[in-house]
Amino acid sequence: MEPQIRQTPLFEQHLGLKAKMISFAGWNMPVFYPQGLVNEHQSVRERCGVFDVSHMGRIQVTGPKAKEFLEYLCMNLVAKIKIGFGQYSAFLNEQGGFIDDIFLYRLNECDYLLCVNASNSQEILSYLADMSAAREGVHIKELTNLPIQISIQGPLVNQNLKQCMDVPDLEYTQINATPCGGYIARTGYTGEFGYELYLSEASGVKLWSELIKIGVQPVGLGARDTLRLEVCYALHGQDISPTISPLEAGLKWACKYEHKDFVGAATLKSTPLQRESLGIEMIEPAIARQGMLVYYKNVVCGEVTSGSKLPSVNRACAMLLCQKEAGLKLGDEVEVDVRGKRKLARVVNKPFYQPRVKEQSA
Amino acid sequence: VVQVSFPSNLKYTKEHEWVEVNGDVATVGVTDYAVEQLGDVVHIDLPEGDSDVEAGAAFGSIESTKTVSDLYSPVSGRIVDVNEALLDNLEGLSEDAYDEGWLIKIKMTSTDELDGLMSAKDYDDFISQQDS
């Protein structure tokens, strides 16, 4: 079967802005615009930037048994989500590894919206269909009527977004319906104050164009990656995967295996923790990247899961998945095998940049 | 549509290096087209001086935030100079890829290898084909 490369409804806008387009998870997406990755990154940290993230998957789970169903599949406590709020969570496999990490919103008593990774969206859809097949009172539906997902992030988001639409006063993770039939949530993947909007094609294209017109910087997938890495948000396929558990990835805060039973919980309970996620910064000039081996006292102790030069901290940093028995502590020096050359790095605190998601916006 | 024009006094490779020839010394850099494709260059790895290189072999690497690309030597010979100053001023690469942005100088074993390189016109055609 010929794999079809998909385009978001904002594809023409990206071409008009002269974005460099790349293939990502089956989608043709902007990786950076002519202003360049570093400028885009700084716009989000200092002012405001807008991202097309319509490639993400949006799935609605409804019905009187929706909550019970999701509670059995999700690692976080679904019962804790109040109506009109969202929660970071994940689906695990029986081995305790990630099928996908998700953001789960409760729109109404029995109405949930899941935002899943682009690369996994079809897999998750069929997983949910399979798991709910024998259950009454659960309905799974792809949210095709809202094909646009726009993320707008940065300390000056409100003053920009308010020029284009009415912006409700939302708490962190809160979600509201918009007058045009979509949703606005106070969430994001950058560590800055911001919103994610779920919109119809017409209202999404209109909002994007208006934001660009008033001078909001469009931001590509490249800066999306450096922004999330600075605040150490996990990326599926790198920092988390079907063979990495939430406990190993440092996501125990969102994994309630000690409090409830769900798919994967039994394995997490019975398996001693052997690996941990750590942060390093490079001492020698070099950039650690995904898959590079890390040595401690001349013995391999782990592997880089994500690494880059980070614009706001102005250093090359990386996240590692490391053997716990190596006993690495803050400040310890390690070596990264950068294409055959060992380069010195040291263990530092995560995150590399302190998130400001709970601060208010101008 | 590519609207860059390439200096006609230089020769070019399919790996987007340029070569300036002065007698038996070749100055090597990367084209502004390549720099633009990479995005912001954040790190360059260059070899030590006084080492040998083979035509077609990697002599270093150039990294943007997102990607790493090898740098390939267009000719064989001995590296006689390395642009250490560039490593502290990577902006020089995007500002002036053909002057400040030079990477290494090679004393060529044989100038015959230059015959296999592209002219500015050929390189321009090569880029147009890649973009279409």
Which percent range describes the beta-strand content of chain A?
Answer: 25-35%
Supply the number of helical segments of chain A.
Answer: 8
Strands of the widest sheet of chain B, in order across it, are: 1-2-3-9-8-5
User: Radius of gyration of chain A, rounded?
Assistant: 21 Å
Fraction of residues in H or I helices of chain A: 10-25%
Number of helices of chain B: 4
Write the H/E string of chain A, N to C: HEEHEEHEEEHEEHEEEHEHHEEEEEE
Structural class of chain B: alpha+beta
Based on CA atoms alone, the radius of gyration of chain B comes out at: 14 Å
CA distance, first residue to last residue of chain B: 9 Å
Largest interface: A-B, 18 and 13 residues
Count of DSSP strands of chain B: 9
Give the CA-CA distance, first to last residue of chain A: 50 Å
Pairing-aware structural class of the strands and helices of chain A?
alpha+beta
Helix content of chain B: 10-25%
| Shape designation of chain A | globular
Order of helices and strands of chain B: EEEHEEEEEHHEH
Stretches of chain A where pLDDT falls below 50 for ≥5 residues?
Answer: none
Largest sheet of chain A: 6 strands, mixed
What integer is the average pLDDT of chain B?
91
- What would you call the quaternary organization? heterodimer
